[in-house]
Design brief:
By secondary structure, the chain is α+β, with helices and mostly antiparallel strands. It has 23 helices and 18 strands. The protein folds into 4 domains: 198 residues, Orthogonal Bundle (Butyryl-Coa Dehydrogenase, subunit A, domain 1); 68 residues, no CATH class; 146 residues, Butyryl-CoA Dehydrogenase, subunit A, domain 2 (Beta Barrel); 115 residues, Butyryl-CoA Dehydrogenase, subunit A, domain 3. The chain is 48% helix and 14% strand. The strands form 5 sheets. Strands 1-4-5-8 form a 4-stranded mixed β-sheet. Strands 2-3-7-6 form a 4-stranded antiparallel β-sheet, with no helix packed on it.
Length: 725
């Protein structure tokens, strides 16, 4: 639960956290609450000596020669500690000077900014005007301006560097009234008759300055969002009400789960924006930065609010630190409005600009390249009439991550190389869907006879499978099944009902959970069996959904015979087999957006000529969330490649994807307006189908409420409800 994935970043994170704890940064912030004047924190000089102010500054100008990805790791930790002082405003200013300054400007300004002897601030609002070489006007409210030696201010699309220490200082007025966030104060800046020559001008740098400010502020926001999540969760584990800790109550559990989801989404967006900044493409930086601001700044604010809510009355007191995070979050959001960022995202989307989520493989990937390329070329040369697929099976490329002999037991890095090489020659691996999850379970848990009968014929495309788990009384509660299996000569007689079964009407076989012993606890007494969907007593009835289509089915078993040879795993130990099926999902390479919704929201903004700023803002929020889901999945891939262990991305992706698909459906209706009421266009029919179908996405495969429980209990460690057996 942090931006850092790779070892070098994790070490930097650990050092930063240790430093801030040793120097009591949070206590230093509290001391500023009632202070009459803001001063540099006592830890400023030792912090500067660590070189963090120059992480992103080239070595020739006194920096470490690193990049934005290293800087955001430190900023996250500063955000966790709600650290006082001008670190964020200083690095905002130095980052844009490092990127857009001339060699002379870099030589003049960066060394002092890197070693901490010079502080700075960046102001991007106001209405400064430049007439000839003279600048004057209201520069707006600037974070950290009161302590700044240099203030970088926007004048149109340009930025000017104002040195408040010399003669130009008389042209600068600072109004430092009572601050919303006294731990790090802002000031209203005015400029009167300031003569600016080229030595202090950064031409056309405002867009990049805004992008960098959004990335860096969002990194700090991620730290605050995580801290609030952790403190709310820990409090929920110990605070007792009504005879139990409040973390057992689903209402509290869901608040904490939502906090984690928001923090994780924000992390992925900021991590991706830092990657874009390191890449150097201006358009990609601006887009990714806007996405980060859309995700991270509101996440910090909402989590700060929720933290107070979970703490209750104690969280509302001055003595508790929760309000410091709320003050910090509101300040950042007011200075860098997420709505503005959402409109920027929508503008980029309408212009056809997309975030490039390309993943650069490490050098170790090349050890797999030659073999994968050779295999791809060979498969390309074979006729696509069954011969190619048979060769895929023989060589393990049909599903490379599967165990041998069916797959190659390929780890994440090899999978990525294989995917690259197969895409290059346009050879597609079969997308098995549910059939793949089921047949992999049989390969893992089935007998030799079962594997021989079913695995290869399925991989060849001759058999299709469905998953017979859900029942009318057991949807998300997959273990609450009542379909009964009674021992008979040579096998079992199955009676009961399954429901919401995708593809049952076209499947040859189904993997079913049945109860073989009602006297045992809920998760015991379950057996997993294979049912022939054409067997006597099997009745498949398609369900007509609210869309008017039938994708799901209910399946009735009336004394259906299942042979002992078709029991997968041990009798009464089927829950283990069922869980394996639920977990058999392939590593997501790069990630996708969400549910299949047959409408392109962005294209619809063009065809409907949408100009409503509120609607465009919401389109921007949707596009930003879609990009964030891809970034979450990409972090999952990178974590797998780095072999740093699993993270929470799988649960977060499922949760966000379901909601994202519903947002798409709702936006399509709003964009179409009354045309969606009478379905007077083909596109309106598709959009309506997508809107209706998306309602299933927060239900299918476990409702979002159950996902929240899983996040709360399995990731955050909140206690289970004692009534759950």
């Amino acid at each position: 639960m942090s931006i850092a994935i790779h070892e070098i970043h994790a070490e930097l994170e650990a050092v930063a956290r240790s430093f801030l704890e040793a120097h009591a940064a949070r206590q230093a912030a509290r001391a500023q609450l009632d202070a009459s004047d803001e001063t540099l924190p006592a830890f400023w000089e030792p912090l500067a000596e660590l070189g963090w102010l120059g992480l992103h500054i080239p070595e020739e100008y006194g920096g470490s020669g690193g990049a934005i990805p290293e800087l955001v790791v430190v900023l996250e930790e500063l955000g966790r500690a709600v650290a006082p002082g001008p670190f964020l405003p200083t690095v905002m200013a130095s980052a844009v000077i490092a990127e857009r300054g001339s060699p002379a400007q870099a030589e003049r300004f960066l060394p002092g900014l890197a070693d901490g002897t010079v502080t700075a601030a960046l102001g991007l609002e106001g209405n400064l005007q430049r007439k000839g070489s003279v600048v004057e006007g209201d520069a707006g409210v600037v974070l950290g301006a009161g302590l700044a030696d240099l203030i970088v201010l926007a004048v149109g699309t340009d930025l000017v560097i104002v040195d408040t220490r010399g003669g130009t200082g008389s042209c600068v007025s600072l109004e430092t009234a009572t601050n919303l966030d006294p731990t790090r104060r802002s000031a209203r800046v005015g400029i009167a008759g300031l003569d600016v020559d080229d030595s202090a001008l950064l031409r056309d740098a405002r867009p990049l300055g805004l992008a960098l400010a959004r990335i860096l502020a969002s990194a700090e926001a991620v730290g605050g969002a995580y801290l609030c999540t952790e403190e709310a969760t820990e409090y929920a584990k110990v605070r007792e009400q009504f005879g139990r800790v409040i973390g057992m109550f689903q209402a509290v559990k869901h608040i904490c789960a939502d906090m984690l989801v928001e923090a994780e989404a924000a992390t992925a967006a900021v991590w991706d924006a830092a990657r874009a900044a390191a890449g150097g493409d201006a358009t990609q930086i601006e887009l990714a930065a806007a996405v980060a601001a859309v995700q991270a700044l509101p996440a910090f604010l909402r989590n700060a609010q929720r933290n107070i809510q979970v703490h209750g009355g104690i969280g509302f007191t001055w003595e508790h630190d929760a309000h410091m995070y709320l003050r910090r979050a509101v300040t950042l959001q007011l200075l860098l409005p997420p709505d503005d960022a959402a409109l920027d995202v929508a503008r980029f989307a309408k212009d056809g600009v997309k975030r490039d989520h390309a993943f650069e493989l490490p050098a170790e990937a090349e050890e797999y390249r030659e073999e994968a390329r050779r295999a791809a070329e060979e498969l390309k040369s074979l006729p696509d009439n069954g011969t190619r697929r048979a060769r895929m099976i023989d060589t393990g490329y049909v599903q490379p991550h599967w165990p041998k002999p069916w797959g190659r037991e390929a780890k994440a890095l090899e999978q990525l190389v294989i995917d690259e090489e197969f895409r290059r020659v346009k050879v597609r691996m079969p997308d098995l869907g549910i059939t793949g999850w089921v047949i992999l379970t049989i390969a893992q848990h089935g007998t030799g006879d079962q594997v021989e009968r079913w695995v290869r014929p399925t991989l060849e495309g001759r058999l299709t499978w469905c998953q017979l788990f859900s029942e009318p009384g057991a949807g998300s509660d997959a273990a609450g099944i009542t379909t009964k299996a009674v021992r008979v000569d040579g096998g079992w007689e199955i009676t009961g009902q399954k429901v919401w079964t995708s593809g049952a009407q076209i499947s040859d076989f189904g993997l079913a959970t049945v109860r073989t012993d009602f006297s045992k606890p809920k998760h015991a007494g379950i057996t997993t069996v294979v049912v022939d969907m054409k067997a006597e007593g099997v009745d498949v009835r398609p369900l007509r959904e609210c869309t008017g289509h039938s994708l799901f089915n209910e399946v009735f078993f009336d004394s259906v015979f299942v042979s002992d040879d078709d029991v997968v795993g041990d009798v009464d130990a089927g829950w283990t087999v069922a869980r394996a099926t639920l977990g058999n999902e392939r590593l997501s390479i790069g990630g996708g957006s969400a549910a299949p919704i047959p409408i392109n929201v962005v294209e619809l903004t063009r065809t409907t000529d949408c100009t409503d700023p509120l609607l465009l803002r919401d389109v921007g929020l949707y596009v930003a969330e879609t990009a964030t889901i891809k970034a979450v999945n990409l972090r999952r891939v990178e974590r797998a490649v780095a072999d740093t262990g699993p993270g929470p991305e799988g649960n977060v992706t499922k949760f966000l994807t379901a909601l994202n698909s519903q947002t798409a459906g709702d936006l399509a209706q709003r964009l179409l307006g009354t045309g969606a009421v009478v379905l007077d266009q083909g596109v309106a029919e598709m959009a309506t189908f997508g809107m209706l179908f998306s309602r299933a996405m927060t239900i299918a495969g476990g409702t979002t409420e159950i996902t929240r429980n899983q996040i709360g209990e399995r990731i955050l460690g909140l206690p289970r409800d004692p009534l759950v057996k």
